[in-house]
């Protein structure tokens, strides 16, 4: 996963992680109309875990991806994970989002889906009416491929 850090932090669409909608460009998580802003490093860790949803991401992989070329201790990652869990409302003893794998790293246990963000509706009636937005064929194919990879099909 050498180039995933650059790809993840710069070109990813919005994600749905569990009940949360994740907007990487804004460093923002939204659930039930409530928005939570997170620090850029917190977002980068979240995106790395989401990229490998269901798989273990080692502490070294996270340190290399989020702090490339910078010498930081384990405490920086630990504090970032604490901030991420706080933002998600996650409990480390009964994780719904980020699970600690002893002596190995962390795993995203919530379902992860890529999303297309439609333009913001100027009118609440338009949004309530369920206005639809076209999806380019290439984007639709990428969505299907992502769903297959996340669903294991």
Short summary:
This protein has 153 residues and is an alpha+beta fold. The protein has 6 helices and 8 strands; from the N terminus they run H-E-E-E-E-H-E-H-H-E-E-E-H-H.
Unreliable stretches, pLDDT < 50, 5 or more residues? 1-11, 118-153
Percent helix, as a range, is 40-55%
Discrete helix count = 6
- Counting helices, strands and paired strands, the structural category is alpha+beta
The proportion of strand residues reads 15-25%
User: In angstroms, what is the radius of gyration?
Assistant: 16 Å
Q: Topology as H/E string?
A: HEEEEHEHHEEEHH
Oligomer: single chain
Q: What spatial form do the alpha-carbon principal axes imply?
A: globular
Average of pLDDT: 77
Q: What's the end-to-end separation, in Å?
A: 21 Å
Side by side, the strands of the main sheet go 4-3-2-1-8
Can you summarize the main beta sheet?
5 strands, antiparallel
Counted beta strands: 8
């Amino acid at each position: 996963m050498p180039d995933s850090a650059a790809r993840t932090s710069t070109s990813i669409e919005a994600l749905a992680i569990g009940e949360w909608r994740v907007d990487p460009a804004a460093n923002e998580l939204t659930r039930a109309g409530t928005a939570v802003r997170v620090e850029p490093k917190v977002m980068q860790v979240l995106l790395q875990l989401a990229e490998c949803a269901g798989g273990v991401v080692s502490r070294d992989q996270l340190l290399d991806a989020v702090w490339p070329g910078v010498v930081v201790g384990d405490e920086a990652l630990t504090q970032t994970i604490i901030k991420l869990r706080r933002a998600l409302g996650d409990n480390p003893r009964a994780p719904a989002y980020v699970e600690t794998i002893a002596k190995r790293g962390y795993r995203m246990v919530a379902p992860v889906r890529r999303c297309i963000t439609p333009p913001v509706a100027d009118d609440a009636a338009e949004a309530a009416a369920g206005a639809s937005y076209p999806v380019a064929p290439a984007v639709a194919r990428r969505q299907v491929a992502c769903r297959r990879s996340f669903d294991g099909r």
